[in-house]
Recover the amino acids of this structure.
């Protein structure tokens, strides 16, 4: 034992040197089992490689078995929303040319996606993207239809305008001329009054700025300088409306004198001849009646 131990001590360095290759050769064999286990990346590869439709189909089946008020139902639903957001971005890209921010369009499209998820039935055999795309696009179109009008008009008139535009194009091609109001009404099955109202609604879709620069053919200055004028008779509207009940209370002769003088533009002499009294009597009656009307307006004010 001592000789062996001594030999080991003497030849310890040599022994290590001699056995080192054997140990190095054995280490890979001992480490082989851990390397045989798949690393995290390899384990995640099958999940990352799953088709979105396949994963959505599986989640929809799971969602159908969960109570609507459970936390797991909300989790699976949120997962489906996040999983199908690329569908919303794809649909929103069709409206990139609009003046609305893309973030707002995507947000509106996401609302359509949520509605489609809540209504989707996986047992019908229809792929979810096929089912969801019309809902997402329809929600975005509804957003533009409701917010792109310069003046807010009822939904019924907005839809009527779209129908009139489509019917007008079809009739124009068929008749080789612009259709009349009666032809549009007959084509859509509505009254002519509705057609006129629907055509007038089109003026509310876009608006021009009052400070906009006029076109080349119209060099009369900004639109604000060419619209409207000061109506000098506008101030008299209130007085005329206030005088109506006061005039109605006057005796018939005094009321007739007022009408002949201020509305018929007759002189006092002509009024006297018309009624059969003297010019002086007409003057006194006018003075008395005007004073009475003036006092009535003052007391009402």
């Amino acid at each position: 034992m001592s000789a062996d131990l001594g030999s080991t001590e003497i030849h310890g360095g040599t022994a290590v040197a001699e056995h080192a290759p054997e140990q190095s050769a054995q280490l890979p064999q001992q480490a082989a089992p851990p390397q045989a286990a798949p690393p995290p990346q390899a384990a995640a590869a099958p999940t990352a490689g799953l088709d979105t439709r396949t994963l959505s189909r599986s989640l929809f089946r799971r969602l159908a078995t969960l109570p609507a008020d459970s936390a797991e139902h909300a989790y699976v639903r949120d997962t489906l929303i996040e999983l199908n957001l690329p569908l919303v971005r794809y649909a929103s890209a069709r409206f990139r040319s609009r003046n609305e921010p893309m973030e707002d369009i995507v947000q509106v499209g996401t609302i359509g996606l949520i509605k489609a998820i809540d209504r989707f039935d996986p047992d019908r055999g229809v792929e979810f993207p096929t089912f969801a795309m019309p809902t997402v696009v329809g929600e975005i179109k509804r957003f533009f239809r409701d917010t792109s009008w310069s003046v807010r008009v009822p939904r019924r008139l907005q839809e009527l305008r779209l129908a009139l535009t489509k019917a007008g194009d079809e009739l124009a091609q068929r008749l080789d001329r612009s259709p009349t109001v009666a032809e549009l009404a007959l084509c859509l099955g509505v009254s002519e009054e509705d057609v006129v109202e629907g055509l007038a609604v089109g003026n509310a879709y876009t608006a021009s700025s009052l400070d906009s620069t006029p076109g080349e053919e119209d060099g009369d200055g900004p639109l604000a300088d060419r619209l409207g004028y000061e109506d000098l008779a506008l101030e008299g509207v209130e007085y005329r409306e206030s005088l109506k009940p006061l005039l109605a209370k006057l005796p018939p002769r005094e009321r007739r004198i007022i009408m002949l003088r201020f509305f018929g533009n007759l002189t006092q002499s002509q009024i006297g001849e018309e009624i059969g009294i003297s010019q002086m009597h007409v003057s006194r009656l006018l003075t008395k009646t005007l004073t009475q009307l003036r006092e009535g307006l003052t007391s009402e004010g």
The two ends are 134 Å apart (CA to CA).
